[in-house]
Amino acid sequence: MRQRVGIESLAVAVPHRYLDLEDLARARGVDPAKYTQGLGAKQMAVAEPGEDAAALAATAAKRLIENNSLDPANLGMLVVGTETGVDHSKAVASYVQGMLKLPRGMRTFDVQHACYGGTAGLMAAAEWIASGAAAGRSAIVIASDIARYELNSPGEPTQGGGAVALLVSAEPDLLELDFGMNGVFSMDVHDFWRPLGRREAVVDGHYSIACYLEALSGAYRGWRERAIAREMIRPKDLPSEQLARVVYHVPFCKMAKKAHAQVRRCDIEDTRGVTWNEALDAQEAPAMTASFEKQVASTLGLCAQVGNAYTASLYLGIAGLLEKEAAALEGERIGLFSYGSGCCGEFFSGVVGKKAAQKMAAAKLGNVLAQRERIRFDEYERVLKLPPGEPLQGIHAAPGTFRYCGSQDFRRVYAAG
Ligand code: COA
Hints:
With 417 residues, the protein is of the alpha+beta class. The chain contains 13 helices and 17 strands. It has helices at 21-28, 32-38, 53-67, 92-99, 117-130, 205-229, 254-272, 278-295, 301-306, 313-329, 356-363, 365-370, 377-384, and strands at 6-13, 17-20, 43-45, 75-81, 107-111, 138-147, 160-169, 175-177, 183-186, 192-193, 202-203, 245-248, 333-340, 344-352, 373-375, 402-408, 411-416. It is globular.
């Protein structure tokens, strides 16, 4: 019998302040509808320098451990997927291990591959467990990032930040992965990158969308081939319609609409033997909209409030979906697409577990968002103009959270609230 493996539970941490996108649009002289409808964004998290990727990762992992009464002695691996690490050498995972005082008999490492690092970490952990090497132990995989672009640039409304900590184990109460069914696609491109020494990403925005869609097509087709071979999906009808929901990596929420349209185009071209054209596009538009509303819309709620969180984006989508629909989706298969610029894309799937609703109740997502504070545009701009690494003075870590509070002899110091 195949080893069961997947996500047993999750926890989320987000910066404690956010900017409303309509406020940003007004300040920049842009029609707010461009951001809210054109990009599908409502709010974006604004991380202060004290809320770096390590502090957010540790806060999410602390919640995961406490909310689920985990015994740290049963952990054998701690992986952080991030593209906004805090040191050229030292792993964020080591900082997290230190902040949480986790046992020393575990493997700790980071994975960097733009927004794909969290998924690479999840698969490394799942394969470690499925191989038997874990010998009954579990892994914590954390996706944690701060998305930053230049002020006044096209990327500005697609910022944000957050962390999602996943407990990966052989008891996948939240989501059992369809092990070995993943489809992957990678190529060497410059669509988005962050040269050494730069805090803000360099991005060729429209090209990055094209790369995302190319990677999605390749990864989805790979997954579909394996899913059909294993008779998990029927080759007739539209294979993607047999997934109860599809969660996409969303640098901005409207991307999910473009992505879902691409998946349906792949299905229609391949199952009907046609080539996509404008007439087909118009003919398929109503079905496309209906399918988006049914399979994708409910995955976007949390992402629209947090903005882009790079590696954490897909996992915020899963958290937001299961927060709302875990009970209804019990036993249903959902599709997942992870994309990291540079680039690598992975399409995979899993079945929502019987205890998913209970696990999501433990994650207390409502509390996480309720503690946030809306800030004005001038405060947002002030925070983003602070020198790199400079923590805000006089603000302490809130109870249950961690904060970067300065460096001594180049050693980063974190405070626990
Ligand atoms: N009302 C409603 N919609 C409007 C609008 C208005 N007043 N003005 C523009 N829009 C729509 C556009 O039609 C477009 O929709 P479409 O993509 O469905 O055609 C959307 O808003 C964005 O407008 P666009 O002119 O393309 O925006 P932009 O050139 O300023 O930049 C990005 C958009 C996404 C390229 C930019 O935000 C970016 O670079 N982001 C970071 C990179 C990224 O997220 N990449 C994704 C893959 S990883």
